[in-house]
Amino acid sequence: MTAVEALDGLTLAVIALDQQLRVDRMNSAAEVLFGVSAGYACGESLHTALPLLAPIVGRVAQALTDGEGFTERELRLRGPGGRTITLDVSATPVRSGVDRALLLELMPRDRQLRISRDNSLWKQQQISREMIRGLAHEIKNPLGGLRGAAQLLARQVNDPSLTEFTDVIINEADRLQALVDRLLGPNRPPKKRQINIHEVVEHVCKLVCAQASAQVVVERDYDPSLPELLADPEQMIQALLNIGVNALEAVGDEGRIRFRTRSQRQFTIGGTRHRFVLRVDVTDDGPGIPPAMLEQIFYPMVTTRPEGSGLGLAIAQNLVHTHGGLIECDSRPGATTFSIYLPVECSDVT
């Protein structure tokens, strides 16, 4: 294993700065943390390449000049667009030949909180799903008997005014059966094969565009370097479409929806750290989701709309779970983002 491979295997973000405070190297964790590639950042000044760190550039420069490092805990930094992260930062002066250099180590405190929150959410959803499965099966059994009895009764009744009532019983039993089936999710295991995630995203984009009004703008922002994914394309389309339709309903007759794909390294899902995951973001500029509902939106029958069924996101989360993935949501007025994380087999990553 080379030094570069070892650095890329760390969950700690590491940035090497030269004597002029230009970025010399950065590992994969730093790329994920700041949302920029090493190819873009290397050679650029620290405040240009990583504007989120602008508030500590002066202190970093002083550490380089004095040859004395520093450590700061729970440093809150606010970047463009109101993005705020909390970091533990350590700066260590080093020698690079005859020149001075500086090593920055950054550990996002938010990441630890996210992992803890996601683990809790993962367990809660598994428990909730088992409860729903048990309840759904208890409902399905008497529904079948109720429908069968209504059919037998309809054959014995010759009065059309009475068969109207048996038809109501049969239709409502069918409606409840369909609802229970939707609660249970797909009734078959995923048929996985190697797919290009952009084919899935583009298919969903076209479906959303077909339903959108002329004043709704649908944007694409794809990372063409992403590897293929072992997944069921139909289930992936259904999961992403449910989220896309949610975004469309959020913006109404006028607004903006963006589909974005990226990769992330060293990402933890359900207590398991994955070396490489694909990320699909769906962002809309609608009114946002009330903070009190953010922790509940993936539960069945929970919806912010009076006419909503509350099943779309629950089904999407379940479909993504069957692929070992996770859906997260970040929302504020004017910017709601649903992010789908899907682990990629190590052999698929170059």
UniProtKB/TrEMBL annotation:
Its EC number is 2.7.13.3. Residues 134-346 form the Histidine kinase domain. GO terms for molecular function: ATP binding; hydrolase activity; phosphorelay sensor kinase activity. Gene3D superfamilies: 1.10.287.130, Histidine kinase-like ATPase, C-terminal domain, PAS domain. It catalyses: ATP + protein L-histidine = ADP + protein N-phospho-L-histidine. The keyword ATP-binding applies. The keyword Membrane does not apply. Pfam families: HATPase_c, HisKA, PAS. Keywords: ATP-binding, Hydrolase, Kinase, Nitrogen fixation, Nucleotide-binding, Phosphoprotein, Transferase, Two-component regulatory system. One of its GO terms (biological process) is regulation of DNA-templated transcription. PANTHER family: SENSOR HISTIDINE KINASE, SENSORY HISTIDINE KINASE_PHOSPHATASE NTRB. This is Sensory histidine kinase/phosphatase NtrB. It comes from Oceanococcus atlanticus.
